[in-house]
Amino acid sequence: VCYSMKSSLTDRNFMPILKRKPVCWNEQNQVIITRRYPMSPAQHAKQILQAHWDGSIPVNPISIAAQIGVYVFPLEGGCSTSGLYRVENGVPKIYVNQHESLLRRRFTIAHELGHHVLGHLREAIASGGNAELPRDGNVTYSLAFYDPNEVDANKFAAELLMPESAVAYFVDKTTKNLSELARTFNVSDTAMSYRLSNLGYF
């Protein structure tokens, strides 16, 4: 692992940047999912970060999504849906509820991007068709949710927004306070609490 430190804490760029490794893409800049060498959702997120992240904290999920050909749109109409992942004529899109808080929207985007990277609608993309996953509400984004695809998307989102190497760096160099870490990574206290617990910090 190769670490490169930026120079200003005010820019929140004191982020360990992992050495980039090859990532498999097709000509449409879409992730090629392979079953021969299966990876965990967190490993998929790390691979995406290695290829498309500039090392800044907080991570920008919209920028990363755009770099792999997935664009984010507002979810029209008032509803209880936080977001959804949809394929239209083979084009992957993320829709997010603009009436929810910034922290919620960030996790929603990362979660829906997880559906894409993990290949949950790969057949529709490959065929140029249309498909939509069931709409995601508040329960779906709980890190304790039990549906396998949703659990995987949550794990992907956690690594994308709170990279393990970044969390380790900030815990070691700056603070162990949960709320301060949550503010640094621009996530909720609840999301950071789950992340710290899953990484073995408490």
| Major beta sheet summary | 4 strands, mixed
If helices are DSSP runs of H or I spanning 4 or more residues, what is the number of helices? Answer: 8
Question: Gyration radius, to the nearest Å?
Answer: 16 Å
The low-confidence parts are 1-28, 30-37
Structural class: alpha+beta
Key phrases:
41% helix, disordered N terminus, four-stranded mixed β-sheet, alpha+beta, globular, 8 helices, 202 residues
Map the helices and strands.
Blueprint: H1 41-52, H2 61-67, E1 71-74, E2 83-88, E3 91-96, H3 102-117, H4 122-127, E4 131-132, H5 148-161, H6 164-173, H7 178-185, H8 189-198
Parallel strand pairs: 1-3
Antiparallel strand pairs: 2-3, 2-4
Describe this structure in words.
The protein is built from 8 helices and 4 strands, in the order ααβββααβαααα. The model is unreliable at 1-28 and 30-37 (pLDDT under 50). The two termini are 25 Å apart. Helix content is 41%, strand content 9%. Helix 1 (41-52) packs parallel to helix 5, helix 3 packs across helix 5 and helix 7 packs across helix 8. A hairpin with a 2-residue loop joins strand 2 and strand 3 (91-96). It has a 4-stranded mixed beta sheet with strand order 1-3-2-4. The chain is globular and about 50 Å long. With 202 residues, it is α+β, with helices and mostly antiparallel strands.
